[in-house]
């Protein structure tokens, strides 16, 4: 380059520098200083927060993002003795949200939409429209009326927690979650399901919407079934959605499985037959208990009327009472075998004694005890076969009140059976020092006291076990059961033989007979005490029996309350029902027939139950 060119370039640069305005240079420096100052302030603030405010910031973040959530425990199953499910839990979900935050969010959108600030207003209006559409879809999924969701929100506007719906199907919950409504989230729950529905309703019971046991085994075993819920610490975003599970604070412990002694096959048969009979007789109610005499296990327990625990709309207090356990009634003539058993134990009579019942009437004070006719002299077996009130009264008077009371108490009267239910009736058995002469005779044939059907069946098991009272239980028993001897084996077998006469062709219980099996039992017909007097129209009919009589295994007790038919009695109404239930139970359990020739029993009649001698 020439010397002239260098001079030209230098001149150009000099002229350009001279043209730069001092004001421009000042603005540039001011801008740079401002940026630098801002960076310094931000760095200083960051250092300050990191060094001095770290713990405070963590607390604030925790308040806004960290949440402790409950992990619901899986409720334990209830199964029968064979492992068949009677109560199980299925996963469901609840829908929850924060009404206050959601309403504030909608309020901010409305303000922005009405502000008129161009694009911001348009976007806010669009967001409001989308949110309204989502709420409409939510109402559709949950089956709510139009605008119902908004009305509910307004009612709980000040709350930070609101449960929109509970126990909905997981598929519906997922659809609702996909709507992405602010603050709305789903929570896992469990809903109880009862496969056998009304068949086992009174025994199994049911839970409330919070999965807490309310009735039956669900209530009595709630601590074992419920388990223990866990707790997790999680991070949620501004809309309440789960971002991450951080740690497990408490481990969830699932509930235990509870195995009952019920056999679902026998239970189904017992309930089905009882239901048909109660409807046919237009009765007020009815109950059945089936016991395994050797173990004391309850194989079936059915009641009518019943209810479906899967349908909460059908739950009514008068329906879900377990009448076989809770209700007590005067047993009537079903007590007569126990009266004879008490007299044998008190050694006031022998098994071969005869009692004079002529003329079929017996006056004690102002009370007159009657038989349907003059039976003359009766053996103890014939007293049971004819159900003689006079004979049973005279046997009762041979004992001291103390001995009679002690025997009845030993077989379980006047105390709770302690079978495993939350509420069990102890019945009514006055202490012997309060018995007058009328009480002594009335207790002989089943009046003046009350028992539950479970107590009555349990007491009869003494005759099936040779005098040993095994603990009664609704739970399956493992290993050998330890019972208590309450009467001699000789006397227990003697009464058992006497009760077989009840099921002969000329006796009150002829309709309880079963082909191929010997049956021992007793009919009962008791007038109900209403308005301080015994009604002639309101009856409780019953039958309690044991089979096979020569090698006892099962005890079945049947009770029907206030059947509305003519000539109602235990022999006419309860005995045939007993026969059907016992026959099916023996077949299901594969119990071999006993075919001893010395006692010939009658077959159940297929015709109407007429011309059968009434039992008292």
Task: Please tell me about this protein's structure.
Residues 604-614 have low confidence and may be disordered. Among the domains are: 67-93 and 194-260, Penicillin-binding protein 2a (Domain 2), CATH 3.90.1310.10; 264-588, 3-Layer(aba) Sandwich (Beta-lactamase), CATH 3.40.710. The strands form seven sheets. Strands 2, 3, 4, 5 and 10 form a five-stranded mixed sheet that branches. The chain has a five-stranded antiparallel sheet with strand order 12-11-21-20-19, with helices on both faces. A three-stranded antiparallel sheet has the order 1-8-9. A hairpin with a 2-residue loop joins strand 14 (361-364) and strand 15 (367-370). It has 20 helices and 21 strands. It is elongated and about 145 Å long. 39% of the residues lie in helices and 21% in strands. By secondary structure, the chain is an alpha+beta fold.
Fraction in beta strands: 15-25%
State the low-pLDDT regions, or none. Answer: 604-614
CATH architecture annotation name of the domain at 264-588: 3-Layer(aba) Sandwich
Number of strands: 21
Q: Tell me the radius of gyration.
A: 40 Å
Q: Tell me the span between the first and last alpha carbons.
A: 145 Å
Mean pLDDT: 87
Which term fits the overall shape? elongated
Helicity range: 25-40%
Sheet with the most strands, sense and barrel status: 5 strands, mixed
Instruction: Decide which structural class fits the backbone.
Output: alpha+beta
Count of alpha and pi helical runs: 20
CATH class division of the domain at 264-588: Alpha Beta
Spell out the CATH superfamily of the domain at 264-588.
DD-peptidase/beta-lactamase superfamily
CATH topology of the domain at 264-588: Beta-lactamase
